[in-house]
């Protein structure tokens, strides 16, 4: 029996899914960029007040949005509208917090960090799509490394205050999120192939876009730290 039509249909469906996922991810990044620019220009006084006087509120909003995205994913898969609203609420919030980037760094530094992050992300994400390997073990190691890095970074932030440690962990962060870009892409591909007919394709695509958005934004921030260090 000829299985070629099924293969073609699977490839078409996967390509459609990946196009949606990357499209929503790119839209979220662009939206964050627009909000960040507006926050650094037109909305600058209000943003400066919010960032300087509302740090606790920032953390509360961030944690609430993050937890909702994580624990609300099951419901979001059945309701793409929920996924859409939360993705762009999260990207808008991140855009506000990134407003300081446009205030502190030159256009050349921001552009260099952005294109470096984009290059690494694209290469690793393509590898995630094309790889045939099971990346589960790699994902577990990356998440463990990320948790360890966050713990040490918090210690450095409140106790050590070492710029050298910050620079070193920026390099480590790039390695971790480069790996996560590959792992998350491969995971979303596997989820689509295994469960794409059981959940909303758009909801699943937006869930993947959220994961890849976080990978890219973190890559950008770590590259920005390195480029800013070199500038200083």
TrEMBL record:
Tagged with keyword Flavoprotein: no
Coiled coil: none
Subcellular locations according to the entry: Membrane
Pfam family, one: Bax1-I
Spans through the membrane: 21-44, 56-72, 84-104, 110-130, 142-159, 165-183, 204-229
A Gene Ontology term for the protein's cellular component: plasma membrane
Keyword field: Membrane, Transmembrane, Transmembrane helix
InterPro entries: Bax_inhibitor_1-related
Entry membrane topology: Multi-pass membrane protein
Family of the protein in this entry: Belongs to the BI1 family.
Name this protein carries in UniProt: BAX inhibitor (BI)-1/YccA family protein
């Amino acid at each position: 029996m000829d299985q070629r039509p099924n293969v073609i249909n699977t490839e078409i469906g996967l390509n459609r899914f990946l196009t949606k996922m990357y499209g929503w991810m790119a839209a979220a990044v662009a939206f964050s960029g627009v909000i960040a620019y507006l926050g650094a220009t037109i909305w600058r006084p209000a943003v400066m007040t919010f960032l300087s006087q509302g740090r606790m509120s920032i953390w509360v909003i961030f944690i609430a949005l993050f937890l909702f995205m994580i624990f609300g994913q099951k419901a979001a898969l059945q309701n793409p509208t929920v996924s859409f609203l939360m993705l762009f609420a999260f990207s808008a919030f991140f855009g506000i917090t990134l407003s300081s980037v446009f205030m502190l760094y030159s256009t050349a530094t921001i552009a260099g960090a952005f294109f470096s992050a984009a290059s690494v992300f694209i290469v690793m994400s393509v590898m995630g799509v094309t790889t045939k390997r099971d990346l589960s073990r790699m994902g577990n190691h990356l998440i463990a490394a990320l948790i360890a890095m966050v713990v040490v970074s918090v210690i450095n932030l409140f106790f050590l205050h070492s710029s050298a440690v910050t620079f070193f962990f920026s390099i480590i962060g790039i390695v971790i999120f480069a790996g996560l870009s590959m792992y998350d892409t491969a995971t979303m591909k596997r989820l689509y192939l295994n469960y794409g007919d059981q959940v909303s394709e758009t909801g699943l695509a937006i869930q993947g876009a959220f994961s890849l958005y976080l990978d890219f934004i973190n890559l950008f921030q770590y590259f920005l730290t390195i480029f800013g260090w070199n500038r200083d």
